[in-house]
Structures are given as structure tokens and as C-alpha cells.
TrEMBL record:
Coiled coil: none annotated. The keyword Hydrolase does not apply. This is FAD/NAD(P)-binding domain-containing protein. One of its GO terms (molecular function) is FAD binding.
């Protein structure tokens, strides 16, 4: 029998971004597991940019009992009312562009400053869980004993389950896929986890909204999330921080360069002139936004291929380490939070111990991987639709608008609670079969 002092499971989370924090908050609500979070940086940090989520993710925040803290820092307190997800305009023309699509849904587009979003998780994290300056250098996952963790600072630790929340450049994913390649003799599996350049360059920046009021008229992106679309390019603008700031992200796609090496650092600073040159000749509503970005950053957008598994031995992947995707459906963080919720629900079942852990991880993988991998693939396709590069749809606006909206259908599939129940059922069935 498990004593009070001895936790049912010791879980190590490596990486304290959105996925690691969401998982740590969810697992900290389970009384008989011990959770430790190891972050390589000296503190939790996020970039100065916006992040948006959809109602599925909001439901999880409610289920975790943390929604109130997020509501305080959302652009507006989220409600069930239908709101605009995105207003799609054709904009690569002088004068005035035009709307060709409108995506509306309950709760609309729920949006935050990233620092505030992370802060709401941090506010719900028990104080004795996080360890900073702990870059996981390697781990040993032997079938018989615990997982040994070795950090860059020379220290080590042990756990029963290691969860890789270490982002798109995940070293845990690399180690996992290398182990699978060794065991199966299939060397090709290793390349699936190597991030590749999408051929897309993104520019990002924030604008105080007082700069976006002209002749007493507010820029439309303050109130409405807008996607300004042009051939092989698009620009997204939406208000965050209670309407005091507009978040802008722009894309410049070179699809013929997809998979080629990206020659610069993934993220660099750039000039406003470079940004304006890229969208020269676009409608005024776009240039009015871009010229107010004082310190744009330039991103070589990378992705990974869909993985054949998110689990191996006593190790699981969550968030970008499992499914780093292009941002065209604003889904990466939401999917990370869905991973965290489903995994935490499975691990909270008292039936899960070291000896039954493999069934728990298999259930997590069976439920989450097909969904997140499908969104990873769909996000890439959505981006091509926004930029009139979808071969079948091109510039046929009457078909394109509905087809873009159709790409969001996954939002209405079984909700995260149903996913968690399905995973629990799968795990129980596997444990029963193992016993019979
Ligand atoms: C341009 C852009 C726009 C986006 N917009 C949206 C959006 O609007 N909505 C949305 O849902 N998603 C969006 N995303 C995706 C979203 O940002 C990511 O999916 C999300 O941040 C992933 O979180 P994560 O915790 O998995 O990874 P990360 O945020 O990368 O966190 C990884 C953490 O692990 C730490 N770490 C790394 N290696 C180690 C190690 N070896 N040991 C210990 N710690 C380590 C890092 O320091 C970091 O803190 C966007 C992405 C991009 C690129």
C-alpha cells in the first residue's frame, strides 16, 4: 500500500512554457502525485506578443478552476455570446480592400498578452514546484528503475515519469525518437522530429492603441480580429490587454523554399522599413497598422512533421515538443493545454502506478496524437488558403470563405472532457485485458 510519505507517482516536467505550466497546474491538483518542474531559464518568461485561444481551451481553464484569473487579463471577459473569430479581407491592393469571409463562434477570439497569459498560470502554481537554471542535458529511462535526469549544471534527479514540455527544439523529443530508431531499426523516424523551415517569414509587433486613432476614428483591428489577406502573404491584427494594445503578426510565404535551410537566427530584430516594403501597395488599413510597429521582430517559422508517437517508455511529450505547428489556426497553445488536461486526468486516476504507467501513456497517445497531428497538418493548409495559394480554391472567394471556416470544424468535435473520458476508458480496458 502507498504510504502518505510515498507519492503514487513522481512526475518531472521539463520546460516551463505554456505547456509545462498548464500541466504543472493541472497535476498540482492531484493530491498523491509529486510534481517537479525544471526550467532551463532563470525565470518563467514569454515574448512580448499576443496569444489567442478558442472556447475549447477556455472550457479547460474553467475545469481547472483557473478561468477567473485568465478572465481578468483577457482582452474582454469571455462570454458564451457569438463573437468574431476572424474577419477575412482581401487587402493587397491600393485604396480599400473587401471582406471575403467571416468566422463567428461562441466566445469569439479570446485574446491575451502572452506575459499575462503565462502569469495567470504562474499565479496558480504551488510555490515549491519550480526549479530554474535546470536545462535537461540527458536522461536514462531503463525499463526496470526510475528515470534519471541529468542537468546542464551537473545536478541530477529521478522520477517515474518524465514529461517533455521543452518546445519546438525539444531535446527530449530527439532522444525519444533516437531510442525508437535504435529499437525498431527504422532510422527515418529520427528526421520527423527535426524542425524544418516552412518557407514563411513572420514579422511581429505590438502597438499602443492610442497611436491607432485617426481623426477620432479607431483602427478596426482594435475591436475586431482581422486577417488581411494577399497573394502569398497575410497580416493579422487583434486587440489585447483590454483594448490598450494591438498585436500584429504578418506572414510572407515562399512555399518553394519550404524545407530548405533557414540562413538566419530563427528570431531577429528588423526595421519598420523592411516590414513596410514587404506590404507596399496594400490597403491603407494595413499600412496604418504596420508603420506604428516600432521594434518589429522577424521570425523564420518552423514546424515539425506529425510524430508517430508522443510516448515511449516512461517519457511523454506535451505541447510544441509533440506537435510544433504553424500558427495559422491559433492552436498551438490550445493544443498544449488540451494535452496537459487529458494527461493530468489520466494520471489522476489512482489505478495509475509505476507498473500501469505504460497503459496510461498509451491512452494519452491514442486520444491526443490523432487530433493534434490533424490540426498540425490543417494549420499549414489554412495558411495557404488565407494567401490564395490553395491549389483547388485559389481566389474563388465564394468557396474560399466557407472552406476557411470549415477548417475550424475540429473546435466542435468531442470536448476535452469527453476526450479525457475516452482516454480513461481506453486505459481501464487495457489494464483489464492485461490482468485477464
Ligand atoms: C508566430 C507565432 C504565433 C503563435 N500564435 C499562437 C496563438 O495565437 N495561439 C496559440 O494557441 N498558439 C500560438 N502559437 C503557438 C504557441 O506559441 C506554442 O504552441 C506554445 O508557446 C508552445 O508552448 P510550449 O510550452 O510547448 O513551448 P515553449 O513556449 O517553447 O516553452 C518551452 C520551455 O522549455 C524550456 N526548455 C527548453 N529546453 C529545455 C531543457 N532541455 N530543459 C529544461 N527546460 C527547457 C524553455 O526555456 C521554455 O521555457 C504561435 C506560435 C508562433 C511561432
Amino acid at each position: 500500500m502507498t504510504s502518505v510519505q510515498e507519492p503514487r507517482l513522481r512526475i518531472a516536467i521539463c520546460g516551463g512554457g505554456i505547456s509545462g505550466l498548464a500541466l504543472a497546474v493541472a497535476l498540482s491538483q492531484v493530491p498523491d502525485v509529486n510534481v517537479q518542474l525544471y526550467e532551463s531559464a532563470g525565470r518563467f518568461r514569454e515574448i512580448g506578443a499576443g496569444v489567442m485561444i478558442w472556447f475549447r481551451t477556455w472550457r479547460i481553464l474553467e475545469l481547472l478552476g483557473v478561468a477567473e484569473d485568465f478572465a481578468k487579463v483577457a482582452n474582454a471577459p469571455p462570454t458564451e455570446e457569438r463573437g468574431i473569430g476572424f474577419d477575412y479581407r482581401r487587402s493587397d491592393m491600393a485604396g480599400e480592400g473587401f471582406r471575403f469571409g467571416l468566422f463567428e463562434l461562441p466566445y469569439g477570439c479570446i485574446r491575451f498578452h502572452r506575459a499575462h497569459f503565462l502569469g495567470a498560470f504562474i499565479a496558480n502554481l504551488p510555490s515549491n514546484i519550480a526549479h530554474f537554471g535546470k536545462r535537461l542535458a540527458s536522461y536514462d529511462d531503463s525499463a526496470s528503475g526510475p528515470v534519471s535526469l541529468h542537468f546542464g549544471d551537473g545536478t541530477s534527479a529521478e522520477c517515474d515519469l518524465l514529461v517533455g514540455c521543452d518546445g519546438i527544439k525539444s531535446s527530449i523529443r530527439t532522444a525519444m525518437l533516437h531510442a525508437i530508431a535504435r529499437e525498431t531499426g527504422n532510422a527515418e523516424v529520427k528526421s520527423l522530429g527535426v524542425p524544418y523551415w516552412s518557407g514563411i517569414i513572420a514579422y511581429r509587433g505590438l502597438i499602443p492603441t492610442d497611436k491607432l486613432v485617426k481623426d477620432g476614428k479607431e483602427h478596426p483591428a482594435i475591436a475586431t480580429p482581422i486577417m488581411y489577406c494577399g497573394k502569398s502573404k497575410h497580416v493579422v491584427g487583434y486587440g489585447i490587454s483590454r483594448g490598450t494594445v494591438v498585436n500584429v503578426i504578418t506572414m510572407n510565404s515562399h512555399l518553394d523554399k519550404e524545407g530548405t535551410p533557414y540562413s538566419e537566427e530563427w528570431v531577429t530584430e528588423c526595421s519598420t522599413e523592411e516590414l513596410l516594403d514587404c506590404y507596399a501597395g496594400w490597403e491603407d488599413e494595413v499600412t496604418d497598422l504596420l508603420r506604428h510597429i516600432e521594434q518589429p521582430t522577424k521570425w523564420g517559422l518552423h514546424s515539425i512533421k506529425p510524430l508517430p508517437t508522443y510516448v515511449h517508455g516512461s517519457v511523454a511529450l506535451v505541447g510544441d515538443s509533440a506537435h510544433a505547428m504553424l500558427p495559422h489556426q491559433g492552436a498551438g497553445s490550445g493544443q498544449a493545454i488540451e494535452d496537459a488536461y487529458v494527461l493530468s486526468r489520466i494520471l489522476s486516476d489512482p489505478i495509475v502506478t509505476k507498473s500501469s504507467l505504460s497503459h496510461a501513456l498509451a491512452a494519452y497517445d491514442a486520444v491526443r496524437r490523432p487530433k493534434a497531428n490533424a490540426i498540425l497538418v490543417g494549420s499549414r493548409k489554412s495558411g495557404q488558403m488565407y494567401e490564395f495559394d490553395d491549389e483547388a480554391l485559389g481566389e474563388r472567394y465564394e468557396d474560399l470563405g466557407p472552406a476557411i471556416v470549415h477548417m475550424w470544424d475540429w473546435l466542435w468535435e468531442e470536448d476535452p472532457e469527453a476526450d479525457a473520458r475516452e482516454a480513461l476508458d481506453k486505459m481501464h480496458a487495457a489494464i483489464r485485458d492485461g490482468l485477464s
